[in-house]
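Sanity check

After download, print the first record. It should look like this:
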Amino acid sequence: MNKLKLTLSLALLTNILSAQSQGSGSNLLFYGIVAVCAVLVVWAMLGLTGNLLKIEASKYGIDNETSNFGVFPDLRDFIKPKRPSFATGGTYHSLKKGFDISLEGKAEGDATHAGVSRFAIRPGDFRGMSPIPKVEVEVGSEIKAGDVLFYDKKRPEIQYVSPVSGEIVEIRRGEKRSIAEIVILADKDIKYKKVSTPDINSCERTELVGFMTSNGLWPLINERPFDVVPLPETIPSNIFISTFDTAPLAPDSNVIIAGNEAAFQQGLNVLGKLTTGHVHLGIDARGNVPSPAFTGASGVEKHWFSGPHPAGNVGIHIHHVSPIKGHNKVWTLGVQEVVTIGKMFNTGEYHADRVVALTGAELVSPKYVRTFQGASLADLLKDNVNGENLRVVSGDVLTGKQESMEGFLGFRDDQVTVLKEGNYYELFGWLLPLAPRPSVSGTIPSYGKDYKFEADTNTHGEKRAFVVTGQYESVLPMDIFPQHVMKAIITNNIERMEGLGLAELSEEDVALCEFVCTSKNPVQSILRQGLESLKEQS
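Expected structure tokens:
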């Protein structure tokens, strides 16, 4: 549109100068301006053609950032960042939008064994499950790792199993007698239920799905849109796995995968049998050389990503590789979920062991520990916490869930963060922002690139009017207008929110939008409200 306006303006100027040139007898200026106008018209037409091609390409999942659709080279082709030497094979994506939050308390070193005695599985960790599932155990029952604990009455074929062996010591209930937690006192030496696994090279997909649903592997899969455990009959268009995390204080996947390389590859082989598309692997290209388990993985499509957070989010990878279109379903898994699947097919046992990063400036010693799904936070953090008035988060500071010290690790979480409560007021804090804090605002001192901030939970302001600022778009590397999506959700405009790309988003994708929001809006909860509304209509 701007090119068209410029062309019309120059055409009008040409007419004026033409009249002047006829009076003066000089045609040189006239013909020169006509030539310039002709060039601009051609340029505008070529630009329009390129934009239309990009729109069509996006319908087929072709990445606009790595493909040139114009007749002439794009300016970005000449200033495109250089691909790292170790990022061989696959596609390369250099993302510019985003923001890295640098905090104190990153886990270091190799993973050590954590002395955890209590574990819990929570039905509430699985979105869409009935509040009162069918519980197959009772207090006092002795179980093995892999034994069935409960299942959803609406989908009884999907079994949820125990991560450890031991004794059921408590079945905690919530509101209206809902099942909140099934607590297990673990054996010192874990005993495993042994099963016979199908041959993935010869078995049919239905047999493979039946084995996974009845042995606790199916809940490890997350389906987008809506972030739910998929129906067994669903066939995904693609499966995406991100092998790195750019969230604040996130664990290093190289530490997680150490010793589990063979199981990871076997898990990839299994997943390749479940989709009609491809298994896509998002690999870190920011500087640290990834594990050979990722760079040398076979049977997958590899995609290298560099840039600030959220470059490691699987939703960002989906958007740039093969966006969710129409009624397509996409499955996502984390590295440790893939390893658990691989171990089951290698050993016939359900191994729910996990490497967990204990992080935060309030810890005596941030570190990596080895434990199992649903580990007790009190056991994980015993004798490792400084001070009082602290908040314990299962996950990272942007997307994690607040837990009490008596709580348990989330089903898919591989990080625990401890930070100070921000229940204090700053006198003239809006006028004198002198205390060090991470911020995208230029009004806050930067303190240098390598400065590590000590985080707390203070929002530094109250909720305000929801105005268009462009802040959301500056930290979301997707061709989506998140602020317009949020307004469509608030007004319950289903068609508009769907048309603006709501189905491509999950809470972790907009977590930075919430962090930078001047209006202090709960962007993640608004997004979930929209997804639930869209799900009801689908």
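If your output differs, re-run the checksum step. Summary of this record's structure: The first strand starts at residue 91 and ends at 94.
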